[in-house]
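User: Some background: our group keeps a shared notebook of sequences we're curious about, and every so often someone picks one and asks for a predicted structure to add to the entry. Today it's my turn. The entry only has the sequence so far, pasted here. Could you supply the structure so I can complete it?
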Amino acid sequence: MTGNDFFPAHDIRTAFFEAMSLMYRSEVPMYGDLLDIVDTVNAGVLAADTDLEAGLRRGGELERLGQERHGAIRVGTAAELSMMRRVFAVMGMHPVGYYDLSVAGVPVHSTAFRPTDLAGLNRNPFRVFTSLLRLELLDDPELRAEATRLLSRRRIFNDQAIALVERFESEGGLDEESATAFVAAVLETFRWHSDTVVDWQTYDRLHHAHRLVADVVCFKGPHINHLTPRTLDIDAAQQEMLNRGIEAKDVIEGPPRRAVPILLRQTSFKALEERVHFIDAEESVFGTHTARFGEIEQRGLALTPKGRALYDELLDDARGEESSQAQDYEQRLESAFSRFPDDLEELRSKGLGYFSYRLADGASTLPPDTADLATLVASGVVEVRPVIYEDFLPVSAAGVFQSNLGGTEQKSYSASAAQAAFEQALGAQVAEPSELYEAVEANSIASVRSAIRARSAQASQ
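Assistant: Of course. Here's the predicted structure to add to the notebook entry:
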């Protein structure tokens, strides 16, 4: 088989995303309500702001908006995480970023599998936030041993999925028939399981240690715990959730509402209480488990390390000793972020965000390609667009996790980030997000200068 016969990775990703979305909609009907809310809000925003619509179209973002999702899954062992990496590689998705959620009381660390180039993101930006359980953070050695035993007995990918991953790795790709079979086989790993692999007492002990531990350990495999569409106005989407009687989070995670959105804002409806069956020997025992929820996100400007440092400083100021669930948190957040510039040009001139550049339509008189970027922008020859943040925020992710685990307890862990251990389990290094954004910006500048040289050459002929 030649490379020309292989089914493109972005098409496999799209097929998997569509199958996942359909499955999750059938399992969690309220997810369909979220999609309807987001579609309605986005249509209203675009109708009211034609400049925004034109900008999204020029940047290649308009077509992807309706299919943009991220999902989340939690695994229990290094072997499961490593296999998950190999599976996502078939779809052109690679690990980006390291997130330590233990600092916010959630015993996991994570990465996001996603396309790493702009073309892949614009074809289909599907991402999966993938977390590995950190059993070493549990205080009880007997409970750690029991959880380890339970996890060692399971195999979360079926034989066909593994065989097709191995074929992809040995042959360099999959044909269309194999790609279709791959999507169907891998989808089973993300399906909900209502039967536990433990009795009620074991579940209760693990649940008491941390609700997320019970979610990861007590079932025969992981499940997708949310799928998140992207909205252009999360405040409007939040209000519409409430208007429809959907119990939403009290506050939106991330930065406050701004004229220029930055990074990521997220909200969700509370996790569902779902009936599960325990394997008690003498009788059939049923109970409930909370894990799956619906989330909406709004994405904004990707920040440089300088901008991110300012963001983290202001977020710390706003949170203080409290969590994002405090009653006056929104007011404190607004006050703290009044010190963060809210104008595109100021953000750009102060080096707080990443931007992409393109030659303006209709630009006729061109300065030399050696002209500095500020001159090219000021003269109107070059247009500027914010680079969209494609990744996640650990505090926000932890906040969503905590509010959707069925309780309000705040665990405290003394462990620090363990990126080296995570990457060893993963079997690869994670990409640094800022380096990817820097590449997008640098490539856009190089394209502008190349276009100016080409036009100048044509004019001199």
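Suggested note for the entry: The mean pLDDT is 87. Residues 354-387+431-461 form one domain.
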